[in-house]
Amino acid sequence: MKIPVKIKLTRGMEAPTYATDGSAAVDLRAALDEGTTVTIAPGERALIPTGIAIAPESSDVVAILAPRSGLACKKGIRLSNGIGVIDADYRGEIGVSLHNTGHEDFVVARGDRIAQMMFMPVYAAAFAVCDELDETARGAGGFGSTGTK
């Protein structure tokens, strides 16, 4: 399923593309000035511009930013907030907040693939206040209550 998404390009960037027909997300690239780099020391964070802003055709969709698996596994680079949520009505440039959990400096240069973005449906909750919730086998057990095996 495809949803039309308008995209505004700035900073000389190109529109992201899907790497393969089966790709669930597009890679977002760093839109730094040519010749400029950003060094993220271990434990530090940096907000990296992407040079794109989006406008999904429907408000029933959200753009989710996720870390790139290779950067996370090999370099310890993740998103500062775990995932990024780009609401359907946000029209500003998308920025990616990277956090270096690794042991070495991480250098970002123009065009580097720094995160990925996928689109997902949004279901708005219709809250119904009540005094009691229905019982389940799990009940209120959480944080490991079902074990590890």
What's the structural blueprint in terms of helices and strands?
Layout: E1 5-9, E2 26-29, E3 37-40, E4 45-49, E5 52-56, E6 61-66, H1 69-75, E7 77-79, E8 84-86, E9 95-100, E10 106-109, E11 113-121
Antiparallel strand pairs: 1-5, 2-11, 3-10, 4-9, 6-8, 6-11, 7-9
- Here the CATH topology equals Deoxyuridine 5'-Triphosphate Nucleotidohydrolase, Chain A
- Global Rg: 19 Å
User: What is the CATH domain class?
Assistant: Mainly Beta
Q: What is the count of β-strands?
A: 11
Question: What is the approximate shape?
Answer: globular
* Major sheet characteristics: 4 strands, antiparallel
Total number of distinct structural domains: 1
The helicity comes to under 10%
Strand content: 35-45%
Shape-level CATH architecture: Distorted Sandwich
CATH homology-level superfamily:
Deoxyuridine triphosphatase (dUTPase)
Which structural class best describes the helix and strand composition?
mainly beta
Strands ordered across the widest β-sheet = 2-11-6-8
**Span from first to last CA?**
36 Å
| Uncertain parts | none
**What is the H/E string?**
EEEEEEHEEEEE
Kindly report the average pLDDT value: 95
Helix tally equals: 1
Word description of this protein:
This protein is mainly β and 149 residues long. It has a single domain, classed as Deoxyuridine 5'-Triphosphate Nucleotidohydrolase, Chain A (Distorted Sandwich). Helix content is 5%, strand content 36%. It contains one helix and eleven strands. The strands form four sheets. Strands 2-11-6-8 form a four-stranded antiparallel β-sheet, with no helix packed on it. The protein is globular, with a radius of gyration of 19 Å. The two termini are 36 Å apart. The model has no long low-confidence stretch (mean pLDDT 95).
